[in-house]
Task: inverse folding
């Protein structure tokens, strides 16, 4: 799927505004700051795959959009990883 096709898949109700996107990402940053217990996020090491997963969750991406963003391999790896965490 191309990026253009992924955008065409969205209907008008699922499109978010720039302000909504920024608010979602700012909330994500705040979540990370809380998890860092006061340490600067600049000094926190993390998994890029989990960061992308968090982006997808905060932006309320559909499963198809999430698959496009993460790619098949990372999507499958994340599913397995998250299943083990439960």
Result:
């Amino acid at each position: 799927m191309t990026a253009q096709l992924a955008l065409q898949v969205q209907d008008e109700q699922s499109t978010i505004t720039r302000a909504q996107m920024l608010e979602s990402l700012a909330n994500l940053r705040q979540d990370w700051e809380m998890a860092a217990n006061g340490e600067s996020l600049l000094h926190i090491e993390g998994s890029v795959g989990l960061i992308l997963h968090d982006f997808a969750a905060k932006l309320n991406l559909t499963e198809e959009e999430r698959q496009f963003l993460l790619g098949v391999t990372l999507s499958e790896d994340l599913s397995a990883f998250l299943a083990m965490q439960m």
